[in-house]
């Protein structure tokens, strides 16, 4: 019995389709039984008549089955006993054969239906991959590879707007298998979190020279070759979005780990920071200086400035057309009305969140903008933004990276426009209007390590309509569902990722998750029992029972024992391992890990030298500007 037949039917549809497939064989057996029965009756009469020449033509004394009826018409009145006996043979043999057909058909019917009794999960085949749009085209992100029956490797690529979620432990080969091939083939805009700058070194050259991308390296902890970006330049000053932009930015600053504003000090310092940011924007603009986090921090720690005087200034300064900004005034008044000790604690809390920007290198890199967030999808050329952090700077730069990713989502998926389009019937329909020039791929490696980003989790359900595609990578399901650093057990990240793929996991919890995703299948177990005397030549009784039992298509221990990549003595991968890929609505795919260095095209693309400095989309400050300490 074959369990891998391509069959997209599930549940009751499996039973219905099995019955439909069974009708034709049953009809064939019935017709064959009737034919054999007629043949037996015909041959009986021929034998009785000694194969006389008047019976007609034959082949080695074998006559056609239906000649029985012709002879009956001619000779029945002369030999009624012969013909009655012949028809008796036909009736008895036909009855016997039909009974056998009914019994066999019932047994086969039961087995056919029971084949999917406990589940119909199976591994995907080439037809499934085509239907899932994972093969047969040359665009999209790499989500794995598939080895067919002939041993040929086919890359699995997904080019739809839906998102991708990858489970891959550290040093498992996800970079050389999924990330690098994607970046060496994706020609649209992209944002990449790049630990150590390795992806910049291997992919920026090809993306700049052959994918016609502007490549930007934002590495805030170095002065060598990094672009500059000021988060406050993204605030839409003077618009209805101004206060909302500032409040969102202030929340990110005082919640660096994504745990929410849990304490009184966080909530009050967030409200105070909103006022300081808005005040700095308007005041420094009038003075011809940019509003930056380092400037705001200096306002708070300047020994020559009394905080009380600054708060009073905020309630009196002519921010807009000679009038005080109401939000700034309310923020300052709230602080003035607090007891001195409480106000001091709030101010100390706020200063601690701005301490990152006292680093002169970081301060320099966030004091002006060589690009803005909207350039990613609306510049004349596609833009590739590499967010580079070295391992020793990763923790302290996390708040700044969180700010950037948050702003990418908020600003690029802000508002959807619609247009009315006429159809062929003279009517019209409304559809979303494309407002961007380039699609944007967000390749976020180790995204749970950035802390919980509520905007990311909430926006996955709709940002695909704005041209954003997320490729999220985590180590395992525990990292994703962690209460402290991740998104908790009730996360919706997995719900909104159409493609999930996984390398061999290290944690049982991840293996259990993958096993459940793969599904349950039904296997038929045959059990034979014998009875009789031990030394007897013949056993007195043999009974056979067939039982359908449930089994995961991929058990937990099989998942944990999936072959990983083979490595040499220097921990370098030399041979690909196995992986599993899940596309919503299709059977699970048991695949192979792709390796870019096994493909001569990728080898040539990765060999292109990366640029020494980042591309600049906007004017820098003057070259003689010095870092202010």
From TrEMBL:
Record Pfam families: T4SS-DNA_transf (PF02534)
Top-level taxon: Bacteria
Organism the protein comes from: Legionella geestiana
Gene: traG_1
Keywords tagged on the record: Cell membrane, Membrane, Transmembrane, Transmembrane helix
Name of the protein described by the UniProt record: Conjugal transfer coupling protein TraG
Family to which the UniProt record says this protein belongs: Belongs to the VirD4/TraG family.
Record bears the keyword Membrane: yes
Main subcellular location of this protein, as a coarse class: membrane
Residues forming coiled coils: none
Gene Ontology CC: one annotated term: plasma membrane
Location in the cell: Cell membrane
InterPro entries: P-loop_NTPase, T4SS-coupling_protein, TraG/VirD4
């Amino acid at each position: 019995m074959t369990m891998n037949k391509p069959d997209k039917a599930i549940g009751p549809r499996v039973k219905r389709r099995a019955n439909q497939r069974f009708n034709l064989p049953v009809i064939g057996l019935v017709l064959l039984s009737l034919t054999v029965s007629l043949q037996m009756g015909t041959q009986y009469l021929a034998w009785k008549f000694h194969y006389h020449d008047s019976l007609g033509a034959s082949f080695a004394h074998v006559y056609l089955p239906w000649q029985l009826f012709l002879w009956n018409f001619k000779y029945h009145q002369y030999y009624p006993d012969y013909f009655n006996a012949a028809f008796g043979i036909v009736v008895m043999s036909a009855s016997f054969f039909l009974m056998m057909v009914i019994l066999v058909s019932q047994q086969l019917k039961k087995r056919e239906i029971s084949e999917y009794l406990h589940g119909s999960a199976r591994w995907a085949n080439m037809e499934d991959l085509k239907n899932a749009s994972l093969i047969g085209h040359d665009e999209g992100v790499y989500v794995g590879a598939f080895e067919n029956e002939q041993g040929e490797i086919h890359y699995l690529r997904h080019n739809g707007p839906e998102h991708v979620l990858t489970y891959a432990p550290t040093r498992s080969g996800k970079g050389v298998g999924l990330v690098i091939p994607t970046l060496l083939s994706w020609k649209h805009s992209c944002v990449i979190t790049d630990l150590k700058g390795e992806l910049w070194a291997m992919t920026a050259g090809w993306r700049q020279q052959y994918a016609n991308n502007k490549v930007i390296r934002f590495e805030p902890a170095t002065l060598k070759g990094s672009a500059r970006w000021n988060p406050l330049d993204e605030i839409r000053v003077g618009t209805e979005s101004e206060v909302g932009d500032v409040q969102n930015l202030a929340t990110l600053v005082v919640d660096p780990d994504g745990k929410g504003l849990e304490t009184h000090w966080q909530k009050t310092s967030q409200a105070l920071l909103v006022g300081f940011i808005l005040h700095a924007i308007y005041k420094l603009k009038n003075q011809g200086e940019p509003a930056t986090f380092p400037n705001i921090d200096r306002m708070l720690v300047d020994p020559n400035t009394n905080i009380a005087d600054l708060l009073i200034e905020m309630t009196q300064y002519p921010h807009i057309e000679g009038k005080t900004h109401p939000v700034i005034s309310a923020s300052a008044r709230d602080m003035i009305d607090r007891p001195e000790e409480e106000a001091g604690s709030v101010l100390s809390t706020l200063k601690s969140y701005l301490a990152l920007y006292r680093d002169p290198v970081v301060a320099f890199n966030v004091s002006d903008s060589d690009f803005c967030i909207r350039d990613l999808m609306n510049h004349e050329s596609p833009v590739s933004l590499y967010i580079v952090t070295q391992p020793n700077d990763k923790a302290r730069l996390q708040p700044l990276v969180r700010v950037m990713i948050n702003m990418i989502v908020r600003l690029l998926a802000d508002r959807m426009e619609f247009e009315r389009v006429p159809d062929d019937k003279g009517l019209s329909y409304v559809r979303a209007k494309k407002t961007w020039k380039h699609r944007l791929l967000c390749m976020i490696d180790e995204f749970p390590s950035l802390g919980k980003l509520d905007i990311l989790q909430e926006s996955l359900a709709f940002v695909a309509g704005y041209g954003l595609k997320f490729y999220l990578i985590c180590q395992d399901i525990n990292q994703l569902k962690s209460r402290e650093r991740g998104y908790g057990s009730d996360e919706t990240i997995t719900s909104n990722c159409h493609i999930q793929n996984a390398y061999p996991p290290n944690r049982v919890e991840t293996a259990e998750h993958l096993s459940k995703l793969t599904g349950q299948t039904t296997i038929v177990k045959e059990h034979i029992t014998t009875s009789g005397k031990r030394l007897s030549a013949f056993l007195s009784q043999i009974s056979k029972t067939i039982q359908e039992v449930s089994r995961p298509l991929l058990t937990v221990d099989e998942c944990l024992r999936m072959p990983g990549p083979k490595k040499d003595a220097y921990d370098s991968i030399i041979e690909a391992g196995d992986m599993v890929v899940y596309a919503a609505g299709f059977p699970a795919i048991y695949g192979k890990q792709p390796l870019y260095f096994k493909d001569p095209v990728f080898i040539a693309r990765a060999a292109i030298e990366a640029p020494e400095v980042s591309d600049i989309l906007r004017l820098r400050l003057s070259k003689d500007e010095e870092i202010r300490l």
